[in-house]
Amino acid sequence: MLKYLLQRLGLMVPTLFFVSILIFGLQQLLPGDPALALAGEERSEEVLRYLREKFHLDEPLPVRYWYWLSGVLHGDLGDSVRIQRPVLDLVVEKLPVTIQLAAMAMAIALVIGITAGVVSAVKRDTWLDYAANVFALWGLSTPNFWLGILLILLFAVQLGWLPASGYVSPFEDLKANLAAMIMPAFVLGNAFAAVLMRHTRSAMLQAMSTDYVRTARAKGLAEGRVVLKHALRNAMTPVITLLALDFGTLLSGAVLTEQIFSIPGFGKLIVDSVFNRDYAVVQGVVLVTSTIYISLNLLADIAYMLVNPRLRG
Known about the structure:
This protein is mainly α. It has helices at 2-27, 34-39, 45-54, 61-73, 87-122, 127-141, 144-158, 174-208, 211-218, 223-252, 255-260, 266-275, 279-307.
């Protein structure tokens, strides 16, 4: 097991290097000149020349990549050309907001998706099974922006139970924080709950038809114990991959949800940076997101081995 984990860690290094080349290279294809955007309306050639020298915009592409990569290796993601702050500070400030949103969305999806998937598999071809499949179809078909607007109209405008937008730090007011985050978390977790339900149902149906489940029933074990201890535990192996990968997707896919609810997280940061042609911020945010995504793949492999001892070598 240790040898396998070391091999995976070794593969992360060239993968991240290749990702860094893609991030930097594709970033240069964006239209516009950041020096022009930073200089403003009343700009002169001297100002433009100074900005291009300061941010190495007048250097060849490989040289600019080397400047950026060497800074990253030393923990320096560069400085925002728009607000004159280190990108690392912005990441540290905005990442916890998006992580909280993704974690709450994941928790909602786990409770709804796994519960619905297990019930659907155990009660196959009953009205509960049909209701769970209708829920999954609804979750997959509902656009996030439309669901978000409906929730705002219902719970914020009509009922006045929740704030329509904004963000409050949990360290300032936990109750206000949860009130502000519950609607966007549900919007973000809704589609994933539907996907999780379908995968859980499929894995449970396969597990329920195996010999060890039939043997457990033949021994006279209670049905609840058979379902939860024998079937669900083995059915969770393929679901773990989905959980790890989709948590990374939730982090990177919260852009629209954060825009609708005016949440100052990673998604809103990268949208504002793209519009402002703030290359350093875009590169830093995408690199951090990619690193988290790759790390989650490694954690999924570790979780495989913990859940299923047969995979340990």
